Amino acid sequence: MKGLILSGGKGTRLYPLTYTRAKQLIPVANKPVLVRVIEAIRDAGIDEIGIVIGDTGPEIREAIGDGGQWGVRVTYIPQDAPLGLAHAVKISRDFLGDDRFVMFLGDNVIQGGIADLIAQFGDSRWNCQIVLTPVAEPQHYGVAELDADERIVRLVEKPREPRSDLALVGIYMFDHHVHDACAAIRPSWRGELEITDAIQWLVENGYAVHPYIHRGWWIDTGKPIDMLDANDHVLEELTPHVAGFVDRDSQVDGRVTIEPEAEVINSVIRGPAIVGRRTRIVNSYIGPFTSIYHDVVVEDSEIEHSIVLEHSSIRGIPQRIADSLIGRNVKLSRSPIKPSAHKLTLGDYSDVGLL
């Protein structure tokens, strides 16, 4: 089997973080989401992976390279415009050939990996396997309607009135018949070739499409609140270890990971949490469900349930920071200017809450 990762899109729901970074490269528990997807496919026994890229392609190429760091071989497949998931399959035909393959959205995080799913599909005669999970607002997803025997009746993309709460998780398995399906369908009202329409074509033409209902957690990291939610779940699954320096005046509990060359000085860190390489935590409190990325300084401050990206500094903030996403190269500090005032330089679409 081969792997196909869809890593295009501009990530507009994550502005302003994604003005300067591909959304798939934003880290969850200090590892980019795209890397987590690559590792999930590799751990399922697949080492040949195609990555469909768009406007952020150069950044993704630089970050992932040829895939050798993760023991896989990567082929890049440029997509000129985001014309739908089925369109991504069409333009990947030369890479895929007639092989069976798994297609994984590059901004999705799922509990437990996909090794069992791949093995199940590989041992079957199914033409397609889709992963479904119950969601609270199915109208925002592709939705599957099943009969009493859990066979697929129909699939609809973002229905106004969903007939089930089973959403398509961004993981699909196909054999070569999907290429006929993608060639047969027409663009939807959104102007895109929908993968739901391609799967529906397979169902209507008598091909075996197997639904798998996933009962664990699954997160589409498309919005800031989703990134924090994914970070929470992944932090809880980490095996904690301390590879950096922690001085005798600090308190670091057993659910904390301190990466190499990090320093913790006279601080308290309560897990689950992770502190990245070459990061310094000084006279500070890091609370649960916090990921501090590489080359960050946190000094005389408190932060919890947040993600802080690389090369940022947080100094002398008296109020605790919580439920926050802080991007790269951010400088957050108290201004010495009198009279006391908030002094801000904010980019487009910034979201700031002040006491």
Residue windows where pLDDT falls under 50 for at least 5 positions: none
Residue-averaged pLDDT:
88
What is the distance, rounded to the nearest whole angstrom, between the alpha carbons of the first and last residues?
A: 54 Å
Q: Provide the structure class.
A: alpha/beta
Say which CATH homologous superfamily of the largest domain is assigned: Spore Coat Polysaccharide Biosynthesis Protein SpsA, Chain A
Fold blueprint:
Blueprint: E1 2-7, E2 27-28, E3 31-32, H1 33-43, E4 48-53, H2 57-64, E5 73-78, H3 85-91, H4 93-96, E6 101-105, E7 108-110, H5 115-122, E8 128-134, E9 142-146, E10 152-157, E11 166-174, H6 177-184, H7 195-204, E12 209-213, E13 218-220, H8 224-237, E14 245-246, E15 251-252, E16 256-258, E17 263-265, E18 268-269, E19 273-275, E20 280-282, E21 285-286, E22 290-292, E23 297-299, E24 302-304, E25 307-308, E26 313-315, E27 321-322, E28 325-326, E29 331-333
Parallel strand pairs: 1-4, 1-6, 4-5, 8-12, 14-17, 15-18, 16-19, 17-20, 18-21, 19-22, 20-23, 21-24, 22-25, 23-26, 24-27, 25-28, 26-29
Antiparallel strand pairs: 2-3, 6-11, 7-13, 8-11, 9-10
Helix pairs in contact: 3-6, 6-7
